[in-house]
Amino acid sequence: MKNTIIRYGLRSAVSICLLALAGWFLGKNLDYSIQEVIGYAGIIVSLLFVFLGIKHYRDKENNGIVSFGKALLIGILITLIAALAFGILDVIYIEYINPDFVTEYYSHYVEQMKNSLSQAELETKLAELEGQKELFSNRFMSFFLMFATVFMIGFIISLISALILQRKPIPGN
């Protein structure tokens, strides 16, 4: 089980990092909302290794049998590897690759809000956004937010995969 988790966790981690980097560099001229959709799509695609890892364990290592609990555990552990990798990559991106990202992102949303909110609403939202900007500038918080995002999506994929792939032994065999 350990080898399956490491193998599929690393595959998921490498794919999430490659897809994120490709999205950041190839999509840097795209609108932030489109970049966000591409980012979530990359997370989901890379977490398909959760399903594949559980299936591999069930079919190749455990004689076609896996309980829901064991399948969920495998999925969560694969997800943890991918989430750690993505959290670390996000910190590297914000600290070294694109240190202006938080400022650029903030400016983009300020412009959007100026076009859609009244002056009173704008001032309230700007105060909230300023607090969030400080939060996102903290590398530990940035790591945690990206880790948690991938982990939550991966947990859902693990849950669905465990439900689909669970297979109990046939009585009498």
Automatic annotation (TrEMBL):
<protein>
    <recommendedName>
        <fullName>DUF4199 domain-containing protein</fullName>
    </recommendedName>
</protein>
<feature type="transmembrane region" description="Helical">
    <location>
        <begin position="9"/>
        <end position="26"/>
    </location>
</feature>
<feature type="transmembrane region" description="Helical">
    <location>
        <begin position="32"/>
        <end position="52"/>
    </location>
</feature>
<keyword id="KW-0812">Transmembrane</keyword>
<dbReference type="Pfam" id="PF13858">
    <property type="entry name" value="DUF4199"/>
</dbReference>
<feature type="coiled-coil region">
    <location>
        <begin position="110"/>
        <end position="139"/>
    </location>
</feature>
<keyword id="KW-0472">Membrane</keyword>
<dbReference type="InterPro" id="IPR025250">
    <property type="entry name" value="DUF4199"/>
</dbReference>
<keyword id="KW-1133">Transmembrane helix</keyword>
<feature type="transmembrane region" description="Helical">
    <location>
        <begin position="143"/>
        <end position="165"/>
    </location>
</feature>
<keyword id="KW-0175">Coiled coil</keyword>
<feature type="transmembrane region" description="Helical">
    <location>
        <begin position="72"/>
        <end position="94"/>
    </location>
</feature>
